[in-house]
Design goal:
The complex is a heterodimer of chains A (349) and B (275). By secondary structure, chain A is an alpha/beta fold. Chain A has 13 helices and 10 strands. In chain A, a hairpin with a 2-residue loop joins strand 9 and strand 10. In chain A, helix 9 crosses helix 11. The mean pLDDT of chain A is 92. In chain B, the strands form 3 sheets. Chain B has a 7-stranded mixed β-sheet, with helices on both faces. Chain B is globular. The chains are: A alpha/beta (349), B alpha/beta (275). The interface between A and B is large, with 51 and 45 residues.
């Protein structure tokens, strides 16, 4: 562990900025929420902030683009080295525990196993993650219900914890260690009491998240009860007000499902990959209009089951890290925690 | 790294009209393909889109592939409008294919309906490569009307291949051009019509519309099949083919990777498994 003061931390970021595109959390004056912003020049914006909790946006778009061309026809196969050179390094600063955990989950789908998505892999390998502890929690945060903590323990290159005058910094990868070694003059050993200070902040935030979620079900009391017989009415009454906007899946850091479609461009065509949402009617609909999930309730249930039951079976983990963005973004005010509590009710006791 | 989304250049060599709505496309890919019966391909019509189909041809033939397609949507409309010589694209094969190893030494019941006969033909070719490897091959094909029974020109040829092969057909409702059996394909699964098939030594494989699969499954269970003996072609909207895009889940399975032919025992717990 090292200490880096605020001035030197900005120097470090400036140095990394020279190596790729730099993204930092910047606080919105009006809403006080943090947004990921791309830095064009130094000094950093005044409202750059590594305190508080996660940004409004997720990190997934760095690795899986909202929309991208995955094949052009007729033209040669994607050449890995060529694509590799075109894609810059992304330095993502201020990623929180829920987001780095989410990226590790999506990795299980995209780059582990028999099929590797080359586009995701190239971009993922180009990400340098500088994670940060949460120093507060939002109303919708629930990392503690899904086995998380408000500070990252893995999945980052560097991780910082705010202490007075600067940050305690840990490395989480060889790349992170190399960055520290290359910039040794910017760091000092932690001073007495700084680690204690970090621990106190961590415990204070942890307690706050736990306290805010004490009335909701933890994941271990969700997955098994979901497999019990649950009345359909319970689901219907909880989710009928969904308007199928797809915001929850777009904003979810672990939702990775996508649509492939072809576009013509003169004599050629392009195959495009775009984020998609299992919440919309046409998502699984086949030619001839057959639809395995024709009802809204089927689709909302599918999302919950996918994250809490199916993916634990196929990929060994609950695909929710408790960031709570789906709760913040839902125009119908649907709160996943409340849905589980209400639907599982007796079964989860 | 190979781009898994890029299709292989393929020429449509011939187009055979099977029924008023079903055509078989004889495809010649720029490079030889191997596939296992039941595995599926993604077929691209340039500029229109891509859709999943299970080949209907002999898996042992690698330089050409036949895919039998019902006209039912955007991509299949475009396909049906193609002429021989047209250029298309292929990705695949995807999925696991039929459990051929398990079928050896068993009595095999094959139940197909409508355009579901198409993937079943690849299975039949695989079985016919060595018919004596199986105790019996009992085939039950159904369609709405006589004109919709694909591959009729081949039925007698198949029956003559080996004395342990039987093939019965049915149409849903009476028709002036038909003097055979009338009724849904499930009516051919009455024990009296099963050629003395020993159910406890048998596997049943079925492909057809999901509503048919549902009633075939119920019938098979009724006549004594156990869920592990039943394989269903659960074709959904497979797109990426690699278990990523998320469109073809049935429970925690991705049909494109774990299927599309699924053992009923694995999916019987899934809510609304037949849609």
């Amino acid at each position: 562990m090292k200490f880096i003061d605020s001035t030197n931390f900005e120097r470090l970021l400036k140095k990394l900025f020279g190596e790729g595109e730099l993204f930092v959390p910047v606080r919105d004056e009006e809403t006080q929420k943090l947004h990921i912003e791309r830095i064009e020049e130094f000094p950093l914006p005044e409202r750059t902030a590594l305190d508080g909790f996660r940004t409004v946006e997720t990190m997934k778009g760095f690795a899986q683009l909202l929309r991208s061309t995955v094949a052009e026809y007729p033209s040669p196969d994607l050449d890995e080295t060529d694509a590799d050179e075109k894609i810059p390094t992304f330095i993502v600063v201020g990623a929180r525990a829920c987001d780095v955990a989410a990226m590790e989950l999506v990795d299980k789908v995209q780059v582990e196993g028999d099929f590797i998505d080359p586009f995701y892999k190239i971009r993922r390998d180009k990400m340098i993650v500088v994670a940060a502890d949460c120093t507060d929690c939002g109303q919708s945060c629930f990392c503690t219900l899904v086995g998380g903590k408000p500070w990252p323990e893995k999945g980052f290159d560097l991780a910082v914890s705010k202490v007075s005058g600067g940050y305690l910094l840990e490395t989480g990868s060889e790349r992170g260690e190399a960055i520290v070694a290359d910039n040794a003059d910017l760091f000092t050993e932690p001073r007495d009491g700084q680690e204690k200070m970090r621990e106190e902040t961590r415990q204070k935030v942890l307690k706050k998240v736990q306290e805010a979620n004490r009335d909701y079900l933890p994941a271990e009391r969700i997955t098994a009860p979901l497999r019990e017989k649950i009345s359909d009415e319970a689901w219907v009454s909880e989710v009928a007000r969904c308007v199928e906007c797809g915001a929850c899946t777009n904003i979810c850091p672990t939702c990775y499902c996508f649509l492939l479609y072809d576009m013509t461009a003169g004599e050629e065509f392009r195959r495009v990959m775009a984020w998609d949402s299992c919440q919309v009617t046409g998502y699984a609909r086949m030619a001839g209009m057959a639809n395995p999930r024709p009802r809204l309730t089927d689709r909302v249930k599918h999302r919950y089951y996918h994250k809490y039951d199916y993916l634990p079976q196929s990929h060994g983990a609950v695909f929710c890290t408790g960031c709570g963005r789906c709760i913040d973004t839902c125009s119908a005010g649907i709160d996943m925690r409340k849905v589980f509590r209400s639907v599982l009710g007796a079964a989860a006791k | 790294m190979k781009n898994p989304y890029y299709p292989i250049d393929t020429v449509v060599e011939d187009i055979i009209t099977e029924t008023p709505t079903i055509k078989t496309f004889v495809l010649k890919p720029a490079q030889p393909f191997t596939f296992k019966a039941g595995q599926f391909m993604q077929l691209t019509v340039p500029g229109v889109g891509e859709a999943p189909f299970t080949p209907s041809s002999d898996p042992n033939v690698t330089e050409k592939m036949e895919i039998t397609i019902l006209r039912t949507g955007k991509v299949t409309d475009a396909l049906h409008d193609l002429r021989p010589g047209a250029k298309v694209g292929l990705r695949g094969p995807f999925g696991k294919g039929y459990p051929m190893d398990k079928l050896a030494g068993k009595e095999v019941l094959v139940v197909g309906g409508g355009v579901g006969l198409a993937p079943m033909r690849a299975l039949l070719y695989a079985l016919f490569a060595d018919p004596k490897k199986y105790k019996k091959i009992v085939i039950k094909f159904g369609a709405r009307e006589p004109a919709e029974l694909s591959f009729r020109r081949q039925y007698d040829e198949w029956r003559a291949l080996s004395d342990n092969i039987s093939l019965q057909t049915t149409i849903d409702v009476p028709h002036p051009d038909w003097d055979g059996h009338v009724g849904l394909v499930t009516t051919l699964l009455e024990p009296a019509k099963l050629e003395g098939l020993r159910i406890d030594d048998s596997y049943a494989l079925s492909c057809g519309p999901e509503i048919m699969l549902k009633f075939v499954t119920l019938k098979l269970l009724e006549i004594g099949y156990k869920p592990p003996q039943i394989y269903l072609s659960m074709n959904r909207k497979m797109s990426c083919g690699m278990g990523k895009c998320g469109r073809c889940n049935v429970g925690h399975y991705y049909l494109c990777v774990d299927g599309p032919d699924m053992c009923y025992d694995k999916i019987k717990h899934v809510p609304n498994v037949f849609g």
